[in-house]
Design goal:
Length: 383
């Protein structure tokens, strides 16, 4: 076997095919790509499924987070769950056959995650799941279905919070395959906190003339909140009430923009909030870290606000990330107007939950994952 210039045997390098598809995947893959590129034992091959494709939902994240251009872009775009998942699977299979990686690494819980995990598992290619074991116990959430199934298909599972291990054990997944490593999304947050612009600069870029001295940040995109016009209307009215006490900035996801329009709620939403386009990663981070509070239905933002020590009200009935409630700054408030307003006023009065940073959310999760994968690949190679 030929040694390469660094003294590593060429054939001992294992290829890891990494999959991204949607906006919340990009901040998770960024630190993993960096660590994998630095590894002497592993080499990454990046596939973007194209689930998210707009410049604001994709390009800017690759640029700002220094993610290399994907080696393969499947270009699937938007469709129903069935069509989108099936199309990813159809287009992913020949890439997997051609690249013959040692493992397929998937992150998070989006349709791209389950689609590629399923193709790999059926072909006997080991699946690595980063952010395993989170459970909302709400099967009406498409992501919950994706989480349960991806974990069942995975050979190596990396978790972000200690409780995930019990969830996996309950589903019959052996603890020897589970590694508690921390949170790669928080690796990205820590690496980028010092790179943000001022709130004024962010708002100017979005065409807003002056920044309020104190503000709340709103994000909404879950089908359960935005697809039913009655729920969406109730939430918009609630935000309008809250805006009498606290100006609200609302970067609007494309899905939400079309639902507001279809429900005839765009004007009321504009009265309630300063509506912004989807923001680049660093601009969103600038708003989050300077917010008085954040109102959201996003999973990732519950974690980011906990890491930043900013109070978060989650506009859902449950969370798959309970550590953000027990240790962090998160409160689950549901979608009832009175409850949201009471909790928001309490945050304005008291400053909200202080919280503490969860265990192993220290900016080094990707490092731990890549070390664990190097050992795993070495064991596979020696069998
Ligand atoms: C997906 C994920 C969700 C994640 C969210 C983050 C699944 C099941 N859902 O939901 O877990 O929290 O991403 O954004 O995978 N669209 C655009 N431009 C784009 C992408 C989408 O305009 O680049 C619009 C399209 O109208 C599309 C809609 O957004 O139909 C929804 O996109 P889709 O990928 O189906 O799901 P998300 O709601 O973004």
């Amino acid at each position: 076997m030929e040694p390469d210039p660094q003294g590593v045997e060429i054939s001992s390098i294992a290829r890891v095919l990494c999959v991204v598809g949607a906006r919340p995947n990009f901040m998770k893959i960024a630190p993993l790509m960096r660590e994998l590129h630095g590894s002497q034992r592993l080499e990454p091959f990046l596939v973007h499924t194209g689930q998210h494709y707009d410049a604001a939902m994709k390009e800017s994240f690759f640029r700002q987070l220094d993610i290399p251009e994907p080696d393969e872009d499947l270009g699937v775009g938007s469709a129903s769950h069935a069509v989108q998942t099936a199309e990813i699977m159809r287009r992913f299979e020949p890439v997997l056959d051609r690249e013959a990686p040692a493992a397929v690494l998937v992150v998070g819980d989006v349709n791209s995650t389950i689609a590629c995990a399923l193709v790999a598992a059926k072909k006997g290619v080991p699946v690595v799941h980063v952010e395993a074991g989170l459970r909302s116990f709400d099967r009406a959430m498409p992501e919950e279905v994706n989480r349960v199934l991806t974990d069942q298909l995975s050979d190596v599972l990396f978790t972000t919070e200690a409780g995930a291990l019990q969830n996996l054990a309950r589903e019959g997944i052996d603890a020897s395959r589970v590694h508690f490593v921390g949170n790669v999304m928080i690796d990205t947050l820590m690496a980028n906190r010092r790179r943000t612009s001022s709130v004024e600069a962010v708002l100017t870029r979005s065409g807003v003339e002056s920044a309020p001295p104190a503000f709340g940040v709103v994000t909404l995109h879950r089908p359960s909140n935005v697809d039913d016009p009655r729920v969406l209307s109730r939430l918009v009215s609630t935000l309008r009430c809250l805006s009498d006490s606290l100006p609200l900035l609302f970067p609007v996801h494309p899905r939400t923009a079309s639902r507001l329009e279809a429900a005839g709620l765009s004007a009321e939403a504009r009265e309630a909030c300063t509506l912004l386009p989807p923001l680049e990663y660093l601009d969103m981070l600038a708003l989050l870290e300077n917010a008085t509070m954040v109102l959201t239905d996003s999973g990732g933002i519950q974690e980011e606000t906990t890491a930043l020590g900013v109070p978060c009200l989650t506009l859902r009935e449950n969370t798959e990330r309970p550590i953000t409630v027990t240790d962090g700054t998160n409160t689950i408030v549901g979608t009832d107007s009175q409850r949201i307003l009471a909790c928001a006023r309490e945050v304005l009065r008291s400053g909200g939950k202080a919280g503490r940073i969860p265990e192993l959310w220290d900016g080094r999760a990707a490092e731990r994952i890549v070390r664990a994968l190097e050992s795993w690949a070495a064991q596979l190679g020696s069998r």
